[in-house]
Amino acid sequence: MKKILYSSLLLSIIQSILFWNKSLGISVTIFLGITILVIYYNFKEKEKIKNKKGMLIAIPIMLLGLTYFIFNNSFFRILNIPVIFALIILMCEKTTEGKIAENRFIRNIIKKAFTPVYVIFEFIGDFQINEFIEKKKETQNKKIEFIKKLSKSMLIVIPIIIIIIMLLSSADSIFGSLFTNISKNISKVFSSETINDISARIVWIIVIFAYISGLLIAFMKKENTEENAKIKKISKFTINTLLISLNIIYCVFTIIQFKYLFINAGKTANFDYATYARTGFFQLMFVSFINFILLKKSPNIQSEKLNKALKILLIIFTIIIVISAIFRMHLYEQEYGYTYLRLFVYFILVTEILILLPILAKLCGMEIDTFKTSIEIIITMYVILNFINIDYIIARNNIDRYLLDPENNNIDIRYITNNTGTDAINEKIKLLNQNGEGLSNNRKDYMNTIKERIRYNIKQYKDEYENRKFKWQEWNLSKYRTHKLLKKY
Asked: What is d(CA 489, CA 477) in angstroms, rounded to the nearest whole number?
């Protein structure tokens, strides 16, 4: 137990050094690397590793940590904190318990997140302080005797040293200035502002220490995590009737999609496909989620060929519905441009298709743990989403779309300057290089307004990076490139 407490204290001190009053940067990567090593060391020391493959979740954790070093996306800098924390709990659970329980999966992660609060109090309650005092009594007596001797010596030595320093300081001004500077630094340390900062920092270290040690202790304890979930049996007739009804409806819908959307998109005159896409998109997304939940939660009927066939058909129709939703979103963003929400929707729908594939494979007879595979797909897709540089994609596509026909196209420059950061700086500067030749006066004024907005945005970055001294813990590749680029402007 001592090693857990020592390693937890080490982590809490390291996080204070890396994060206290500092913005996130390379410090996140360093801290996560040390945290994973500490977790692995404690689990191995206590022989709690039941599944070494659980530690593979450290890969997406470290990759997400690297995004704080490479990119400067304000949205993911916030969102990744709870995601990384959840992945750490998932890694610990899979490593110590051997298997991820599908039943109440999210509830179990939330429960583990709050477990350290009562585990640490339970640990303190179980700690027999009287017994500890009795065992250490002899050693403490020796220490007390030594402290008494040291105290008596200091009472004699310190006054003599102070008198000698005072005499030498009055005799030599350089020697005196040396001790004057030391006294100034000591007084600075004991100023109210410094004391408040140190006090808050110590409290924060204690809180983090208590939480980390509580979390590690929680995973060291054996818990019976198996829960017998009571599933209400639905009759075979009811399930098959529902599946048949849905498949008929989706068959009709699929025919309409192929006739009016996939084949004739953009060919029909006086038909606003952007509006058509917008009005149906969210409804289709919701329908696909219902189908997904139905496939995951409906009980499998053994040796029932009709049930399997109906589910396979439902998956095929669900994939068509998802493709229809993706295509509608594509039509819409061609008309109105990219945003965070629109790109996230693409990823959610593609992820849904990828999750449906192993479910389809299992229905076809393959031995696949669909829950485990689904978790792996979701984690992989989320890591990819972090690394595609979403700010750059939004800025590049929206700016290129505008520059393709600046006489007729518009651009939401407020969205680009407010919602994309330093990762998109090169694309923003591209607008400054436009001279507006061949444009009408109104469109030239519009372009000048855009350029003024970009100049103001660049000035904000320039002021921030020129006036601020970044500490090594805050180092970020995107900020460094931007700082270097803006020296030209």
From this structure: 19
Lookup: tokens for 469: 């001294």
DSSP letter assigned to residue 91: H
Q: What is the largest CA-CA distance in the chain?
A: 105
**CA dist., res. 105 & res. 109, Å (int):** 7
Q: At CA 337, angle to CA 331 and CA 340, rounded to 5?
A: 105
Angle (CA) 56 370 249, round 5°: 145
For the stretch 398-440, pLDDT in tens is 999 999 989 988 999 999 999 999 999 999 999 888 888 888 8
DSSP 396-453: HHHHHHHHHSTTT----HHHHHHH--GGGHHHHHHHHT---TT--HHHHHHHHHHHHH
Distance CA 335, CA 281 (A): 15
pLDDT tens digit sequence for 71-127: 999 999 999 999 999 999 999 989 998 777 676 778 888 888 887 766 665 655 555
User: Which residue in this structure is represented by tokens 């977790």?
Assistant: 39
Looking at beta carbons, which pairs linking 368-377 to residues 24 or more positions away fall under 8 Å?
370/296, 371/100, 371/102, 371/105, 372/100, 375/90, 375/100, 377/351
Report CA-CA distances (Å) from 475 to 18, 68, 387, 481.
11, 9, 18, 11
Q: Report CA 279 to chain centroid distance, whole Å.
A: 32
- How far does Cα 276 stand from its chain's mean position? 35
Nearest alpha-carbon partner for 203 in 416, 16, 453, 425: 16
CA distances from 133 to 121, 141, 148 (A): 20, 11, 20
> Is there a contact between 380 and 301 (Cβ–Cβ < 8 Å)?
no
Residue 479: CB partners within 8 Å, gap ≥ 6? 25, 72, 422, 465, 470
What pTM did the predictor assign?
0.78
**What is the secondary structure of 320-387 as a DSSP string?**
HHHHHHHHHHHHHHHHH---HHHHHHHHHHHHHHHHHHHHHHHHTT----HHHHHHHHHHHHHHHHHH
- The rounded distance, in Å, linking the Cα atoms of 325 and 288 is 9
